[in-house]
Design a protein that fits this description.
There is one protein chain. The protein has eight helices and seven strands. It is an alpha/beta fold. Helix 5 (108-114) runs parallel beside helix 6 and helix 6 runs parallel beside helix 8 (162-175). It is globular. The model has no long low-confidence stretch (mean pLDDT 92). The structure holds S-adenosylmethionine.
Length: 192
């Protein structure tokens, strides 16, 4: 899936990228490597995540933050001394791109509403998988689509998170945007 995903981004060569739902930053690093290859130092990656499990976000699906590989646990706990699911750890992982990245710790339902979306050319939507959150996120990304940008949504047809598909289908129907379901129903690519 990694290659498929990066090929999709390569088609649009965005200079300003927003990832909603960064988690440990693995995809973020691949995105930054690709954007750096295309634009050299002239790109911006914005990553937004809760970076925390608490009462306020208990309804969101947060992946298991424990590693199955014990070596990774040891690496983060004793060598890095960082919680891998934290802004600090992702900042560390992306340190090579420190002048190009901007990480935000917060809830997309609130943060996106207050963010200037006018310069963002590509959004990878992979944050909250709850119907209301996906719908809010999509509505807050409308400007990106209207400006000829792309919103690529992950987990379109995920059995345990049916709210993602429901929100995307309703959003498309209501706004009459173009939507391509790609990679075996994994992604929904929304454009004008
Ligand atoms: C599937 S993971 C993201 C994986 C990441 N995109 C990758 O490819 O490596 C989903 C992430 O979304 C975050 N998340 C869930 N609800 C959120 C919300 N309302 N606002 C911001 N982030 C949220 C979780 O903390 C989690 O890290």
């Amino acid at each position: 899936m990694g290659e498929f995903f990066l090929t999709e981004i390569l088609k649009k060569k965005p200079k300003t990228f927003l990832e909603v739902g960064v988690f440990h930053g693995v995809t973020a690093r691949n995105i930054c490597e690709l954007l750096n290859e295309i634009h050299k130092n002239d790109f911006k990656y914005i990553g937004l995540d809760l970076f925390e499990e608490n009462d306020e976000n208990k309804d969101e699906i947060i992946p298991n933050t424990k590693f199955s590989n014990p070596l990774k646990t040891i690496y983060f706990r004793y060598i890095k001394r960082l919680n891998p699911y934290s802004k600090e750890a992702v900042q560390d992982l992306l340190s090579k791109f420190k002048n190009n990245i901007y990480l935000i710790k917060g809830n997309s339902n609130k943060v996106l509403r207050e963010m200037d979306m006018s310069k963002i050319e590509y959004v990878f939507l992979d944050g909250g998988h709850d119907y209301n959150t996906v719908m809010n996120d999509l509505n807050n990304c409308k400007e990106v689509i209207k400006n000829n940008g792309t919103v690529l949504c992950d987990d379109y047809d995920l059995g345990y998170a049916p709210g993602v598909k429901k929100a995307i289908d309703e959003f498309i129907e209501h706004n009459k945007f173009k939507c391509e379901i790609i990679c075996n129903d994994r992604f929904a690519k929304i454009e004008l």
